[in-house]
Amino acid sequence: MKSNMLSGKTALVTGSTSGIGLGIARSLAEQGANIVFNGFGDAQQIEKLYTDVGTEFGVQTAYHNADMSKPLEIEAMMRFAADKFGAIDILVNNAGIQHVATVDEFPAEKWDAIIAINLTSAFHTSRLAIPGMKQKGWGRIINLASVHGLVGSAGKSAYVAAKHGLVGFTKVTALELAATGVTCNAICPGWVLTPLVQKQVDDRAARDGLSNEAAKKALLSEKQPSGEFVTPAELGALAVFFCSPAGDQVRGVAWNMDGGWAAQ
To answer: Nearest CA to 228 among 187, 257, 262, 259?
Structure first.
């Protein structure tokens, strides 16, 4: 439901041209926040996406195509957002990539890329956003970790290492900001049917000779007791809660929304 709770505030959401990031961006826009989008994709489709979100929710939107593995491009994006809207009030570190292989067969360049995008980029955006948030006396940093920030899965060494690191980084950031109006928390989703997860479904279907629906059910049955995917809209609602007055004293948590995965 549209409200003005975040009216006048600006949110930067990395990796927000699809999937979880887009769901969170839409939820924040629905509350009145201006949105800076980031991510890869077709330029015309992205322009339509951020224009449509702005029109639908009556907010201002912009886009920057920073490669989140490159610190100089991250710095340029943060300057762009500050120049466009004056400050970043809400930072959502969502950008992420995945590769599945055993440790002894894991390509070194894939490891480096996953750590850079899934973990190190959050350091660069946070270090640049925090001074402005502290100056204003209010801010929200939301790091999209994963249930893999809490537990491990074979074949995902780099992803699990990055997400565990992101949970640790969240705790330290929260502690350093504990006496301010700036909070930092992590969201740890289970299976969400994003393009990243759909690729794993497709790979499983091809490998095991399954239909796509059967491959989805097989994937969920292994880890997620609810048997249902978490939705981007549900994650967006949690991000909105973190930004609300009720979230003022929620600091340094790793909040799993995972259909019971980590409860096992």
So the answer is: 259
